[in-house]
Amino acid sequence: MPPQKAADFTAEELAGAQLVRARLGNDLLPELFDTDFYLARWWRSYNGDLAKIEKCLREYLTIRTLLAYDVDDMHHALTTRPMTSKVLRYFAASRLNEPVRSGDTCMFVQRMKGVDLKQLLRVVPVSHILSTYYGLQEFFSRVMLDAEKETGRPACVTLILDLEGVILSDFINPLGACTKFAKLCAKIWQEYFSENVVKMYIVNPPGILSLMWKVAKCIMDQKSQSRIEFLFKPEDLLLHLDAHAVPAAFGGTWTDTSGWAEEPEYCCNSAKTIVSIDYPKPHQVWFDNGFKCAPPMIHGTIKSKQTFVVSRTVTKPGTRLVWEFDVNGDVDFDIIRTECAGSAQQGKEEPVWPRLTLNSLKMNEQGHLVCKEPGEYRLRFTNSNSTWFVVKLEYAVGLID
C-alpha cells in the first residue's frame, strides 16, 4: 500500500483558519491549538460558518477546562484519574501511548469482545463514560498535532472497530439504552471532533450490510456515516492500510508483545468483566459524600426548549454540592455559579460543571462538586428536543460542609 495521507486542506480552508484565529483572539485559543491545520479542521467541520465555529469551539474549550483536560500529558490524565481509568478498564483497545501510523494517519484499534455495554450502563453513570470519551478525542487531537509538527503535513486518526461479540439486537431498537448511548457518543464526535476520526473500518459486523447501515443511520448523521466502511473480510484492511498498521489477527503484521495485549495479534487489552461487586448501591453518592441518608427525590417536568433550574446558595468555600437525578429523555445538564444578591458582580455567570447531553438510561446520574467560592449554584436541565416530547425529571440536590 502507498502511504496514507490525510485530506489536504484547500487554500480556502487555510485562509479560513486565519479568520477563525482573528475571530477568537489570542486570549481564548490555547497555544497548543494555534495551528493552521487545527483551525482549518474547524473551518471544514462547519463549512466556514464563523458564528457556528466560534460557538462550538468556545463550548469545547470550556468543557475541556472544566474536565481538566487542559494538561500537558493527556495519556497520564486518562490512565491515572479515578473516573477515566475506571471507565477505560471496561473497554478493550490498543495502547494509547504508542500509536502506530500508516502514512499520515494515526491508527487505533478497539475490540467489543467481552464488553457488556448493557451492564456497563448499570455500573457507571453515562456522564462518566462521555467525559472519558471527550478525553479520548482530546488525546487523538494531541496525537494528530504531534504528527503534524513532525511532518509538516495534515494528520488524521483511523479507527479499526472489531464488532466480534456484539449483540446486534441491542442496537436494533432506536429507543433501546445501547442505541441511545451510542447516539450520545456520536453527538460529541459530530459537534467537536468530526475531523479527528475521519475513517472507521468496522470488521466482523454481526449482521448483513443493509441491517448494519440501518443501525448506523439511527445513531449518526450523514457525514459521520460517510466515514464508516464495513469489512466482512478483516484481511481487506490491507487494501486500505499498510501491513504494519493492521493487527496480525486481521492479516497484517502489527503485534503488541509489551504485555498490554491479552492476545498480541489483536493488539488490545482485555475488557474487565463486570461482576456483582461492581454494581453501585442505590443512592451511593450521598453516603460517599458524608450524608447519613439520601434526601427524597423531587419530581419535575421539562417541556421542549425549556430549562429547569435548581438553585442552592453556598456561603462557605469547600462546601460540597451533591446531586442525583433520573430523566426519561436527553437533557443538557450543566452547573453555573452566580454572585449572590448585593455583590458588586451580582448576576455574573461562571460555568463550574461542563455542559453534557445526558440520559440516565440504566442508572441514575449522580455527582458532586467542591464549591471553591460562595455564591448561588444553579443546576440546569435543558430539554433541547425540538418536538413535543416532555422530559420527566426526578432529582435530589444537597449541600454538606
Share in β-strands: 15-25%
Mean pLDDT: 94
Major β-sheet profile: 6 strands, mixed
CATH evolutionary superfamily of the largest domain:
CRAL-TRIO lipid binding domain
The helix count comes to: 12
Structure characteristics:
401 residues, alpha+beta, Jelly Rolls, 2 domains, 6-stranded mixed β-sheet, 14 strands, 32% helix, 23% strand, CRAL-TRIO_dom
Describe the model:
With 401 residues, the protein is an alpha+beta fold. The chain folds into 2 domains: 11-277, 3-Layer(aba) Sandwich (Phosphatidylinositol Transfer Protein Sec14p); 284-400, Jelly Rolls. The protein has helices spanning 11-24, 36-45, 50-66, 74-80, 82-88, 117-123, 126-151, 169-172, 177-192, 209-219, 222-225, 284-288, and strands at residues 92-93, 100-102, 105-111, 156-162, 197-203, 228-231, 298-302, 307-314, 320-327, 331-338, 349-358, 365-370, 375-382, 391-400. Strands 1, 2, 3, 4, 5 and 6 form a 6-stranded mixed sheet that branches. The longest helix is centred in the middle third of the chain and has 26 residues, at 126-151. 34% of the residues are buried.
Task: Characterize this entry briefly.
32% of the residues lie in helices and 23% in strands. It has helices spanning 11-24, 36-45, 50-66, 74-80, 82-88, 117-123, 126-151, 169-172, 177-192, 209-219, 222-225, 284-288; strands at residues 92-93, 100-102, 105-111, 156-162, 197-203, 228-231, 298-302, 307-314, 320-327, 331-338, 349-358, 365-370, 375-382, 391-400.
